[in-house]
Amino acid sequence: MADQNRTDSRINALIARLDGLDGADADDLRAEIDWLIGRYRRLDRNLNKISRMSDRLQAEIMQLNDKLRAASITDPLTGLMNRRGAHDALQMETKAAQAGDSKGFCLALIDIDFFKAVNDTHGHDVGDEVLVNFSARLLGSMRETDLIARWGGEEFLILMREASLADAMALLEGFHEALRSRPVKTAIGPLTVTASSGLCQYHSNDHGYDSTVYRADHALYAAKEAGRDQWLLADDPKCD
Fold first, then answer.
1. Considering only CA atoms, which of 14, 13, 16, 3 is closest in space to residue 42?
2. Do the Cβ atoms of 155 and 110 come closer than 8 Å?
3. E strands of the chain, at which residues?
4. Is 154 designated active site?
5. What is the distance between the alpha carbons of residues 20 and 180, in angstroms, rounded to a whole number?
6. CB atoms near residue 214 (< 10 Å)
7. Residue 238: how many CA atoms within 13 Å on its side-chain side?
8. Residues 6+ apart with CB under 8 A from 231
9. DSSP β-ladder status, 105-112 and 155-161
10. pTM for the whole thing?
11. Which tens digit of pLDDT belongs to each residue from 192-206?
């Protein structure tokens, strides 16, 4: 840009001088002006090329940042959102509920029963198959608006946006029934897999989403202690 400005200034100064000249001096000056104009055009073409390259690089950088962001919140095995992404979504959903911008939400934590035994008996490759199949079952049982995340290991989180407690209970019961009725396909053959879950509804007096997650987690462990292969509501007397 500095070279182009200097070229512009020089051309304007030479044109001003040309008005008072004639003969050989005028011809020499015209030749220099023609050379400068040619240089100006080359600079202009180069600047346009650099500008296009810069725009393309900026677009590629933005796309790369988007991919890196997506990778940072995605579980590589199941393709579900990971715990970090779930935290971000929970924070946004809780803020919306507190501000009255949504009807609130329900939250479920689900843990595969005796998953360690699957790994110990059949190996981690089969364990991974179970996790992938289990994730697909969850996606198929929930609504498109629900967020499903791998919370950690064999534990999953479901954020049911703007769901009534009755709707959430029906969805969770439907998933458990489907899981019981159809074994999981693996390389060693079908495996019967069950899960334990804790369900709760967001309360306006929850101190951030941590309180909501805690209540769901408490219900989950109560379901395990009650014999597994079931879900419990956080307000259930069994959770006391």
1. 3
2. yes
3. 105-112, 147-152, 155-161, 195-201, 230-233
4. yes
5. 99
6. 15
7. 16
8. 108, 110, 172, 173, 176, 196, 197, 198, 199, 219, 223
9. antiparallel
10. 0.74
11. 999 999 999 998 888
Contact 85, 149 (CB under 8 A): yes
Give φ, ψ of 157 to 5 degrees. Answer: -120, 140
- Homologous superfamily of the 83-239 domain (CATH): Reverse transcriptase/Diguanylate cyclase domain (3.30.70.270)
* DSSP conformational letter for 44: H
For residues 22 and 29, give the distance between their C-alpha atoms in angstroms, rounded to a whole number: 10
pLDDT at 166: 95
pLDDT of residue 24: 63
Domain ranges of the chain: 2-72, 83-239
* Active-site hit among 32, 60, 93, 154: 154
Q: Does residue 151 contact residue 109 with C-beta atoms inside 8 Å?
A: yes
Token pair in block for residue 193: 């897999």
| Res 41 pLDDT > 90 | no
CB neighbour list of residue 208: distance below 8 Å, 6 or more residues apart: 91, 94
β-pairing, 147-152 with 105-112? Answer: unpaired
Backbone angles phi and psi of 78, in degrees to 5:
-95, -20
Rg over CA atoms, the chain: 33
Q: Is the predicted pLDDT of residue 129 greater than 80, yes or no? A: yes
If we measure between CA atoms, which residue out of 170, 171, 172, 194 comes closest to residue 181?
194
Average pLDDT, the chain: 86
DSSP helix, strand, coil percent of the chain (3-state; round to 5) = 60, 15, 25
β pairing state of 230-233 and 195-201: parallel
Contact 157, 151 (CB under 8 A): yes
